[in-house]
TrEMBL record:
Polar residues biased stretches: 21-33
Stretches the record annotates as Disordered: 1-33
Matches recorded under InterPro entries: FlgD (IPR005648)
Single GO BP term: bacterial-type flagellum organization
Pfam families: FlgD
Biased composition (Low complexity): 1-14
Name of the featured protein: Flagellar basal body rod modification protein FlgD
Keyword Glycosyltransferase among UniProt keywords: no
Protein family: Belongs to the FlgD family.
Lineage: Bacteria, Bacillati, Actinomycetota, Actinomycetes, Micromonosporales
Keyword rRNA-binding: no
Keywords, ordered alphabetically: Bacterial flagellum biogenesis, Cell projection, Cilium, Flagellum
Length: 143
């Protein structure tokens, strides 16, 4: 049998035929292969291996374990980001009705009562009077 990746000759099956053209792996930033592409490559590698010199099974298990570990770490990172977003919204909403001291965009220290809180993406802010103040600009929360 030939390798699934040919070296430019006519013999061998090109990897694009083995993987199929209709399903493209979902790419994420900093990640060149998705889960589907990894599994398809693993199956293709098993299907087209040379029976006279089979690949080491421990190597496949190690690759699968590493892939599973990376997948779980990605899920954990998404969960952590979600929890951080909820925590920042909670922090901002706990300031409603309280008097705070903050530094405005010109670097002047001001004090005012928080009337509302909001989160735009990952940037929480509170409204003091008619001014939106980023949560990171608040220096003191008064009782």
């Amino acid at each position: 049998m030939t390798s699934p990746v040919s070296s430019g000759g006519t013999s061998g099956t090109p990897i694009r035929d083995v993987l199929g053209k209709s399903t493209q792996p979902e790419k994420t930033p900093g990640n060149s292969l998705g889960q589907d592409a990894f599994l398809k490559l693993l199956v293709a590698q098993l299907r087209y291996q040379d029976p006279t010199s089979p690949s080491d099974g421990a190597q496949f298990l190690a690759q699968t374990a590493q892939f599973t570990q990376v997948e779980k770490l990605n899920e954990l990172a998404k969960s952590q980001a979600s929890m951080l977003s909820a925590q920042t919204m909670l922090s901002a909403s706990n300031m409603v009705g309280r008097t705070v001291t903050y530094t405005d965009s010109e670097g002047v220290t001001a004090t005012g009562k928080v009337v509302s809180a909001s989160v735009n993406g990952t940037n929480p802010s509170v409204k003091i009077g008619d001014v939106n103040v980023p949560l990171s600009s608040i220096t003191t929360v008064h009782a």
